[in-house]
Amino acid sequence: MYINGQWVKGDQKRKIYNPGNNQVIDSVSEGGIKEVNKAVQSAKEAFYHHGWRESYARTRADLLLKVASKLEEQKDTFAKIETLNNGKIYEDALVDVEDAIHQFKYYAGLAMQPHGQTYDVPDEIQAMVIREPVGVVSIIVPWNFPLVMAVQKISAALAAGCTVIVKPAGQTPLTIQKLFEIIDEVGFPNGVVNLIFGPGSVVGDTLVKHKDVDKITFTGGTDTGKNIMKDAADTIKKIGLELGGKSPNIVFSDSDFDTAVDYAMLAIFAGQGQVCSAGSRLIVEKSIYDDFVRELVDRTKNIKIGPGWEPDTEMGPLISSQHLKQVLDYVNAGVEEGATLLCGGNQLQEGIYAEGNYMEPTIFTDTTPDMRIVQEEIFGPVLAIQVFETEEEALALANGTDFGLAAAVFTNDSAKAQRVIRAVHAGITWVNCYHPTFNEAPWSGYKQSGIGGDLGTYGFEEYLNKKQVNISLDVKPSGAYHYKGKS
Predict the structure, then answer these.
(1) 276 catalytic, yes or no?
(2) Which of 81, 210, 245, 282 has the most CB atoms within 10 Å of its CB?
(3) Catalytic annotation, pick one of 242, 285, 360, 391
(4) For the purposes of burial, counting CB atoms within 10 Å of the CB of 336, is it exposed (0-12), middle (13-18) or buried (19 or more)?
(5) What tens digit of pLDDT does each residue of 168-214 get?
């Protein structure tokens, strides 16, 4: 771990596995409450007493750019580590690393931009707003995008002038640990950037409840997010939560057929479906339903499954054997509730799949809105298909869950596309495509998919307090009181 500018060891070791074959590829030292307290104290000292909160924007920007440059030099190494540790295919891991590089560059530039405002007010007052860093920020990130989701928070928080404590997911710490080698090399002041490993029930819980942590930013499951909200309430922390999704992908009969089928696959099977914004509910207009489903199933059966490091792999393993079991339990639940399993639904266990966490891409039809596979986030390659006849019915189905992270609509009718996108309850949306997002634009959800957000200028603002300042331009008594004594 990395605390107060030093590499430190905890009392426990955790083995790190390759999901492609479940072999141990490394181990990391884990900490507990003692290490959390040290990390928080060092971050607090660096922020309040050692000058980081008053540091020049140019200083912060220069450090972020140095990290970006060194990360770019090693991007192939980072992508290979991500593939071995997470299981995602190499090409996807490389895109994640390139996104992380851009995030450091983007927020380095944003740190240099003007962030204040002045107001023309009636009195002889200069009224203004200045923005100041929130303080000590705890960053808790998931295992599905280990590097890029950490960096989007780290880079924004540091650019804003905050100090940070990063807690990666236990299964996937390796690219973050290597990133901290770069952070150590470029020379951030001691205590500004800290890294701690350990179980969420100990390390995460202590960070959330710690009185000297000013903000928690978390990406992960909705149930965990709810607990964070409850625990953070005792100290009135600022929180940012990017949580689960059960995102609808609506296909109208007037869409481009091949494009819609292609993106329906990408929406759910990219990242093995272990993506919070995955299009896990496909909502298809009745007039094209049979042809669409038939083509989708045919193509899905031909997806090449294998280790992420193999060049022809199109879908890799799930993160762990435990998570694979949870996903297969959802498949069984779908069958038991009466949905029709059109393809997939099985663990792959022969040949190259014998030691890893592989399963077939899975498609259900004949689903109803009350089924678990329609309502609950499965976080795996499992697609539930629904059918509609009218635009109103499509929207009712689309908005019929507790989640509101992402949504897509496929249609060649531009007016219809605008109507539907405006009416869906989701924070990230697409028309005639699925999954492309950009660091310049905000990432946030509606309903139980979270509060606050990351990326873009909106994500930057999450790490800044707004302070109103009023300066009198005519210094004299207010005249509010009628004191008649000597002046």
Answers:
(1) yes
(2) 245
(3) 242
(4) exposed
(5) 999 999 999 999 999 999 999 999 999 999 999 999 999 999 999 99
Does the predicted model carry a pTM greater than 0.85? yes
Average pLDDT, the chain: 96
C-alpha pair distances (Å), 257 with each of 38, 206, 251, 288 = 57, 51, 9, 9
The CA distance from 44 to 214, in Å, is: 10
Contact between 418 and 426 (Cβ < 8 Å) = no
Residues near 56 by beta carbon (within 8 Å), at least 6 away in sequence:
none
User: Which H or E element spans position 327?
Assistant: helix 321-336
Residue 466 vs residues 117, 133, 301, 358: alpha-carbon distances, Å = 10, 9, 53, 48
Q: Which of 30, 35, 276, 462 is catalytic?
A: 276
Residue 377 region by backbone torsions, left for phi larger than 0, else alpha for psi between -120 and 50, else beta: beta
Amino acid at 254: D
- What whole-number distance in Å separates Cα of residue 195 and Cα of residue 242? 21
Residue 456 CA to residue 131 CA, distance in Å, equals 17
